[in-house]
C-alpha cells in the first residue's frame, strides 16, 4: 500500500515527481546493462541495501548516492531550465 504524501507546495510536489522519473531511469538502465543490485552497488561504492532503498523509494536518497549510481551506470544527469523538466541522458 502506497503512502499518500502531503506536499507543502507545488514546487515540492514537482521535485518529488522529478525524483521518481530519475529513479525509474536508473532502474531501467541497471536492468538494460544486466546488472544486479549487488553488482551496481559495488561499481558505485555503496551497499546493495542502498541500491534497493533507492529503487523502491523507501527513503529519499542523498544527491551523493544518486551521483554515484548515475556515474556507475554511465549516465549524465541534467536539468533543462527552459522547460523546467529534468532530463537524464546517456553518454
From TrEMBL:
Residues 26-84 form the HTH cro/C1-type domain. Pfam families: HTH_3 (PF01381). InterPro entries: Cro/C1-type_HTH (IPR001387), Lambda_DNA-bd_dom_sf (IPR010982). CDD domains: HTH_XRE. It comes from Paenibacillus polymyxa (Bacillus polymyxa). This is HTH cro/C1-type domain-containing protein. SUPFAM superfamilies: lambda repressor-like DNA-binding domains. PROSITE patterns: HTH_CROC1.
Amino acid at each position: 500500500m502506497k503512502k499518500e504524501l502531503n506536499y507543502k507546495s507545488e514546487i515540492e510536489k514537482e521535485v518529488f515527481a522529478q525524483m521518481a522519473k530519475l529513479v525509474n531511469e536508473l532502474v531501467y538502465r541497471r536492468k538494460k546493462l544486466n546488472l544486479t543490485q549487488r553488482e551496481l552497488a559495488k561499481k558505485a561504492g555503496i551497499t546493495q541495501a542502498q541500491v534497493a532503498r533507492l529503487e523502491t523509494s523507501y527513503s529519499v536518497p542523498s544527491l551523493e548516492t544518486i551521483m554515484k549510481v548515475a556515474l556507475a551506470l554511465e549516465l549524465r544527469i541534467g536539468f533543462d531550465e527552459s522547460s523546467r523538466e529534468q532530463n537524464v541522458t546517456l553518454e
